[in-house]
Every structure is written in C-alpha cells, then in structure tokens.
Amino acid sequence: MGGNPRVFDLSHVALHTTRNDCWLVINGRVIDVTKFLEEHPGGEEVLLEAAGKDATKEFEAIGHSKAAYGLLLKYQVGVTPGFKHTNAARAEDDAGEDTKARAYVMTGSAIKDDKKIRCLGAIEFVLPLVVASFAFWYRYSAGLTGMMMTE
Length: 151
Ligand code: HEM
Known about the structure:
Shape: rod-shaped
Number of strands: 4
Helix content: 55-70%
Low-confidence stretches: 103-117
Largest sheet: 4 strands, antiparallel
Distance between the termini: 91 Å
Strand order of the largest sheet: 1-2-3-4
CATH topology of the domain at 10-95: Flavocytochrome B2, Chain A, domain 1
Radius of gyration: 31 Å
Mean pLDDT: 80
CATH architecture of the domain at 10-95: Roll
CATH class of the domain at 10-95: Alpha Beta
CATH superfamily of the domain at 10-95: Cytochrome b5-like heme/steroid binding domain
Number of helices: 5
Bound molecules: protoporphyrin IX containing FE
C-alpha cells in the first residue's frame, strides 16, 4: 500500500460478498481475501460468512498469530473512513515488518549454521590425522631413543 490508501465506506465493502469477490474489514483496513479463501487455515466458510462486513471481532476472537496479522497487510486494498493509525494498526504494521525481518534473520542464521557445520567437518577430518601422526612420531622417536640407548 502506498502513502495514500483508498478509502471505502462499509456500504461499498458490502458489495463484495461472493467467492469470486470477497472483501471484509478488520481494524479499519479493507481486506480483499478472494485469493486467500482457499488458503485460509480456518476454512473459506468463515471468511464468506463475514464477507462485506466488519469482521474485527471475529478475527480477534480467534487469537490469530502475528503472521496472520502480517497477512492483513498483504491483502489490504484500502481503509474505511474512520481509519486511524491506532496502536492496533501499528502492531499490524510491525507484524508485517517482523515477518519480513524474520525471513531475513532465518536466512542469515542458515548461512551461519552452514559455516559451523563445514568447520566441524574439517576438525573431524584433521583431528584423527593429528593424533595418529603424534602417536606415530612418539613411537618412532621412542624407538630411536631406545635404539640409541642400547648402542
Ligand atoms: C472473519 C474473519 C476470520 C475468521 C472468523 C477466522 C477464523 C480462523 C480460524 C477458526 C482459524 C483456526 C484454524 C485452526 O486452528 O485450524 C484461523 C486460522 C488462521 N487464519 Fe483466520 N479467520 C478470519 C480471517 C482471517 C484473515 C482475514 C486472515 C489473513 C488475511 C486470516 C489468517 C489466518 C491464518 C494465517 C491462520 C493460521 C493460524 C494463525 O496463524 O493464526 N484469517 N482463522
């Protein structure tokens, strides 16, 4: 969404109530869930029941995750006239940012872990070699000393 979100009043939202065109309002955001109907883990039925309406109460009653709040931003097409950047709305913005941030951190740690594994692999390979050469050197030099002492 750009700087100036489109404003739709509830009577406009109420025109979008079908499986092929399904909008609802959550916390003053107008959400077009048409493409999300089949993906919704809670099923498409609940979304269709709330279509065209303010579904804030239903949405919050479920205790949706941060990721779900983040998805609201993805499907947002506008706002209702009373929309203010309240704390709730800001939390949704943060959830959206957080989802992106988490993906970024995850990639970072995956790369880090990978390095660690590679480093471990090298130690596992080199350490037995070092121990074996030490043992060999010890035996060999002890043998030499022994030989020198008998001479
Ligand atoms: C009337 C509005 C809504 C109702 C009544 C509703 C209901 C539900 C229910 C019952 C579940 C739980 C499914 C389970 O535990 O197996 C669920 C999960 C979920 N819903 Fe909704 N939902 C609504 C709107 C939305 C919207 C608009 C989005 C996002 C655009 C969304 C995203 C999710 C996600 C991602 C989950 C998976 C669990 C989680 O991450 O919280 N829902 N929903």
